[in-house]
Amino acid sequence: MNTIDEFKIILEYLKPYKKQVKKLAVLAVITSLFTAIIPYIYGRLVDAVSMSTFSVNFVLALLGIWLLMDIISAFCNKIIEQKGSVIRVDIANDLVCKISQHIIKLNLEFHSEKSIGSIFSKLERSASHIRMITGEIVFWVFPKFLTIFIGIIILFSIEPLLAIGVFLLFFGYIVITIYKVNFLIEAQKKLSKTHEIASGNLYDAFLNINTIKSCSAENFQNKKIKKDYRENLGFAYKNYFSLWASIMFLQNIFLSCGFFALFCFALILLKNNSITAGTLIMFLGYFNILSAPLNNLAWQWERFKTGITVIKRTRELLDIEPENYNEKGKIIKNIKPKIEFQDISFGYEKNKMILKDISFNVPAYKRIALVGGSGEGKTTLVDLISLYSAPSKGKILIDDIDIKELNLSFLRKIIAYVPQEIILFNDTVKNNIKYGKPNATNQEIIFAAKTANANEFIEGFPNKYDQLVGERGIKLSTGQKQRIAIARALIQDAKILILDEATSALDTKSEKLVQNALEKLIKHRTTFIIAHRLSTIKTADKILVLEKGKIAEQGTHKQLLARKGAYHKFYSIQFQK
Question: Is the pTM of this model over 0.85?
């Protein structure tokens, strides 16, 4: 991607604010014009006071114009800073919102494969860089270079030779800077990747702090963090700053030598009366205007190229195809959730099927349990109902309609899911419950909590339903989190329910409370139950036993025990004395 295309990316984000940007551009032109005129006034003042025909009125007029332009420029700069700051913050927020909204619409395969910390780091750094680009480059560098352009034109009209010298110095400086900064940009790319990895690992460590504590792995994790930040990231920064120092040295030498040569040439012109003392002062003024942005050029150019590289890498997420929500898909009215699997096979890779030729049906409002060893595809099977992944072969029907023909949002709203590991938002109890129905009333929330046997412990909190549950619900016990999840499923009032080992991590007391709440939740719902504890599925209408991705057995609890097959073996292992 060339530089023009890179600027188009920034213009894309500026487009919604083009009216405000145009107004600020007018103010920037005014300040640039005034800034470029002021050195001209310096020179004219020096010439005016050194002339024998000294005119007080002329000098006062020039001083008045100078002061007025300074005041107007200060006022314009104030507006540019105020309004420009708002625009750059809004643009950064637009970028984060657009990419975050897209990420949320990506399928679960993406989220299971990618590091959340790395993605979060990309978003944060992209927002920071686009604020910098729009603030410092669009609203600062461009006006400065406009001032230089106007200044060179004015200087050319007074002394062409000095103007040409300044222009050549300016052009040469830019060429050298752009050439050398390319090496710096490559170093910055490596630095960015190293930074993302380090941030992702650090985020992952904080996310799994319980595991670190339980394994007494604090020292091990600290060594890992130290290696990421002190060694890997430290080396990347040292390499970057070393290149930066060499570029700064080259720039300073070039600019100093160029100014020395031009100043000597100006002295010769002054000695030969080719220019006046005022013109020399004017030249010095324009050179100062030139040198300020030039000294920052490498830094600004590197920041632009680095920033746009980070932004482009983050925008690559937009190229990933989101889930097909099938907005025009079917919506079943008066749903009677009968479910049928027709010859379903599934695998993440073509030659590695997790599920093979699965066929069964579940009448409306019946309970079906899934039994099998770890890795046999139980969770994968129920995930297919929500179309988190599409079957590789076969069809899943709800009320005789292929789920691929349904509106995806509708499909997922009619399915409630209570997993083994409940992860809650770092929000209030009330907001976590009503997440299944955002417009739920307080009465509905309390009723759902009471039905889920959660109201009693919620009322015991200092802030009751407004109590914050902490990151991932860390302030609640496992049983409490389960009952909050059940309350959320109740308030969602979905017709299909999936329970993924919802009681396997609970103590006896909590299990009874949760099991009682689940019985209330299961009523009038077609329910899939995944359970290692076979005692929890005795009342299921049908039990499927999965082995090697296939249905090895199916039937009721009594039927399967009588068959003395795989289910009987599982049951015997759990209940042998």
Answer: no
